[in-house]
Amino acid sequence: MTRSAATRRNLPASPFKNPVAPPLKHFAVGDRVSHDEHGLGRVIGLEGENAVLVDFGPVQKRIMAPFTKMTQL
Domain-by-domain residue ranges, the chain? Predict the structure, then answer.
């Protein structure tokens, strides 16, 4: 049996709550961050709400939103 790729909607009388989207993360130039794959770094550039440029020491990476693997320290 296959399942539809569409999300399921909750009925108003349902005892289950609607899934809550996680809040968007905002970063500023100079923020210290920790990334699950790249380690510790510092934000050196912003590209609106879509991406940040992070200096991880030997390498600089462009991290795209959503920033699920990156946290602000």
Answer: 32-72
Residue 59 to residue 16: CA distance in whole angstroms? 45
Are 44 and 55 in contact by the 8 Å Cβ rule? The answer is: yes
* Residue 56 predicted with pLDDT over 90: yes
DSSP state letters, 22-70: PPPP---TT-EEEETTTEEEEEEEEETTTEEEEE-SS-EEEEESS-TTE
Tokens of 44: 């050196």
Would you tell me how many other CB atoms lie within 10 Å of the CB of residue 8?
8
Is it the case that residue 22 has pLDDT exceeding 80?
no
Residue 56 near residue 40 (C-beta atoms within 8 A): yes
Q: pTM of the entire structure? A: 0.69
